[in-house]
Amino acid sequence: MLITFYTRFVTTYFKATLLFVALLTGIFGYYAQYLSIDASAETLLLENDKDLKLTREVHGRYVSPDYLVIAFTPKEPLLSDTTLASISQLKEALLTIEGVESITSILDVPLLESPIRPIKDVVGNVQTLESSGVDKALVQKELTTSPLYANNLVSADFKTTAILLNLKDDVRYTELLSKRNQYMILAQERALNSEEKVQYEEAKQAFKAYRDSTRDQTHEMIERVRAVMAPFKSEGELFLGGVMMIADDMISFVKSDIANYGIAILLIMILILWVIFRQVRFVVLPIVASFSAVVITVGINALLGLEITVISSNYIAMQLITTLSLVIHLIVCYREEYQVYPHFTQQELIGVTLKRMSVPSVFVILTSVAGFGSLMTCDIVPIIDLGNMMNIGVSVSLIVTYLLFPSMLMLLEKKAPVMIFDNAFTLNATFARIVEKRRGVILSVVVLIALFSLFGVSRLVVENSFINYFKESTEIYKGMQKIDNELGGTTPLEIVVRLPKVDVAQGKDKGVLDEFEAEFEEKNAEAQYWFTAQKMQTILKVHDYLESLPEVGNVSSLGTLSKVGRILKEGKDFDTFELALLYNELPEVYKKVILTPYVNIEHDEARFVVRMVDSNPNLRRSELLEKIQNELQTTVGLPQEDYKLVGMMVLYNNMLQSLFSSQISTLGLAVLSLGSMFLFLFRSLKVALLAMTVNMVPVSVIFGIMGVFNIPLDMMSITIASIALGITVDNTIHYYYRFREELALDGNYVASMHRAHGSIAFGMFYYSLATIVGFLVMVTSNFIPTLIFGLLTVIVLMIAIISDLLFSPLLVLLFKPFGYTKKEV
């Protein structure tokens, strides 16, 4: 028999086995250093998303550089000489940083109303705050009232200003990304030939290598920006913001949590294992097995090119749970067998332990593989990668545990287990009595839990707010809140509107010609006649509609400039030729700020850049996007085919909605897979149905809790269902397998339940206790997703153990799925 051969081999050649595991750990440990963490936007996008293709097309037509923003609240008045000198010095220092293309601040934006002048004079001599003779009182009025700058460049109270760092366009990155995406799209359309497969793989590797190097450069640039900012903090408050900075900080938080909480969890688990077992061997063994399994898995993932993303950042913690469960169940069984066969040799004790535990352990891993394998039916790459990582992880955990447990014990002399904690621990026996005597109470509680879960699930929302990823005490939270509340919002949304094409030959109206026409007509007749009153009216209607939405912070568009024109012309709009004059004659440096990001004459498009107030607790992104999509047609009057919503907010929302729908489908597939595994293991449809019922309890309860306490399902927490299912399946298999063994002794369900609670339940309790206390330390994290993950995992562990030792045995007693041969007493 395979188990007998395996047991004899590892207990005979235990030193060679230990050396083999040590070599594997060392080899894969070397490669583990190359596992990368990627929180970039690319990992959060659906490559087959039509909105992604459209967004890339739009960004190709408009100047849309990546940027960072500094929110500066000086101690001195904003326009004081001291403050302006500080901004100038800060600007000069920032321009020395590699990767920063230009700086936009109150020092260098065009002043159109300080004082108000004819448009031809404005174009011919653009004034800035650095120009000589500028009236600061007029400047303050313009900055606080101009649609261009109010609640955008400066706050309403004129105490805070934004300093925009425009970053250099990485042409190489774009080229490599485009080449990789071309092959990716081609592979989705048809099978690649051998040459194309090689080229596709080369394109992927080239893009990844370059992206990794640029990610390091980006981190260094952000750190240099912060270093430049540091000396100026004596001048006032400075906060750094921007989507790129958020992604970089998320990576830093994830790395920090993996390191810090990995060590903390390790120390706490050592303490808990000592309290339970009171023997060094049974403390060292789980720690060594967990360490070795995790290191080998990380190394394999690195070799396969798999990366940790925000979605898969907790996979190491999930593998730790699996490994601890396997080892602790083996330890508890070994101690149990020692009590029964104290005269056995060490090799014999290990043999009976492995023989008794190998089948349920293998099926625990197989069901986990089936469950996590369902994630690979999803079309989101980070979810597929998570499924691969977990399947590799749980498989490695099984192999490492079943190699290390017997070989490490064979190094040690047989020693009687210390049963102090076991003799004092009576909770399992208490649970058994409750199952026997209080069946009605348990069923009533289950019904209440079901109602609670249904209520909570009805309130569950799918939402992703980056500001809520950080505690209010952190610098990043304060900075994002400052930008949200005082400088027009954070998360960008773009709307592109196609406008009627103008026939230049018919566009001339001799009745409105003025002295400017001859000056620039020959330069750009198309631009001259593009800015019609009808187009500007449409642009203003869209602009005003977007500004009316309470969730919106700032709106920038051609309508912004049009509103400035009303100020310059005392309530009158810019006419066609004045707008064309600005478009043609305004210096390029200022044109990039107020014109070209919002109009593309060649494609007859107007672009609206909207920033959402990410910290608004009432912001529901999916609902808002749907509302805008509908009301641009019903309220503004645009034909639906003439406008598109694009940008990161749309793409993130698409990803999140797809993630949610895929989790629902994969969860259903996982439950069916697990049911099939139970059917195969126990050869009973009734057992499979009962097991699926029990396993759905933690999933439904955790979703209920999230709904009741307004914890949104986002890209970090949405995998909690898979975790809940995996933990409960583990307990259920071990309990049912032991129950069937006990039932074979006398056919008495109640007595078998008491014996199962007095044996296998110890392992279930001990592993749950160790992981619960260990994961509780995560609630101290400054990174909210880590905190939420730790808290939800603890709740899942508690619900799972209660469900498997109260509800599960109750169902077994009620439905008797294993049959019985002797009359119960």
From TrEMBL:
InterPro entries according to UniProt: MMPL_dom, Mycobact_MmpL
Keyword Iron set for record: no
Keyword Membrane recorded: yes
Name of the protein: Putative RND superfamily exporter
Primary localisation category: membrane
Organism whose genome encodes this protein: Sulfurospirillum barnesii (strain ATCC 700032 / DSM 10660 / SES-3)
Matching SUPFAM superfamilies: Multidrug efflux transporter AcrB transmembrane domain (SSF82866)
GO CC entries: plasma membrane
Subcellular compartments: Cell membrane
Keyword terms, alphabetized: Cell membrane, Membrane, Transmembrane, Transmembrane helix
Domain Membrane transport protein MMPL: 604-815
Signal peptide: none
Annotated membrane topology: Multi-pass membrane protein
Highest taxon above the source species: Bacteria
Transmembrane region(s): 12-32, 258-277, 284-304, 316-334, 362-384, 390-412, 441-462, 664-682, 689-709, 715-737, 758-781, 787-815
